[in-house]
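Quick start: what a row looks like.
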Amino acid sequence: MPGFTQIPNDEVFDDPLWTADKFTKGQALIDLYKLAQFQNGMVHKRGIIIELMPGQVGWSMESLRKRWKWSIGKVRRFLKYLEKAGHIEQQKTNVSSTITLKHWINNDMTNKHANGTQTVSQTARKRYPNNIVNKDNTVNIEKRESTLSKEELSEFQKKYPGIDVNQSYKKFILNMKEKGKVIDDLAAAFEIWLMNDVKYDYNKRDKSNDLVTIHCPGCDSKKEVKRGTKEERLTFCKQCGQPMLGYNFYLIEKNYRKNDKGK
């Protein structure tokens, strides 16, 4: 049936229940209307300002994936279905993806009933603001969860082996919260932070954690070597020439020799 439904933003979309669980497809469609611009605005992507018109959504698939608790493949398939069904139109560039809602209702339609002839009273409009009036989207800055995944942090650790990435990341997040920063590209901002760590010798990693002690079962001498390396597996004692072992294997070998000696 023609018409529109009035939904109070504060009481519905801003309630924690709205994003508490994985979204259904119907909920995700409604959410696009919540995320859309209700007036001209902009979104910042990689330093580029992209202008948005009413009825357009400037959120990336990755951000929608996190908000809806879906896989990136499901988001892609869902948006493709909506486009084929005539609900949306997608405009993609090298730096952004814009979704245009094709059934967006202009503001002048909010004063009409479903049949397009009667008007809604001013009292009703004040009590139940139309779902189009999304005050959060005056400037639609795409929000990303303020966390990086373990996989992302692991990649940074490989790239910056001299830095304690986990420790640095905790300080980075605290600094961001303290200054009230809203960051569009969290990974890029954190990498700049890490580059400063390298430049100024901040948050240096304790490399002693990379060392392991190996033991000689012949003369009980010890040596520290790098964990997980060929040196850990194939080092021979300089004093007696026997292969050196990790602590547990050293104890087993010592016990074996002791029992063999007693026979």
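That is the whole record. The chain is about 40% helix and 10% strand. The chain has a mean pLDDT of 79.
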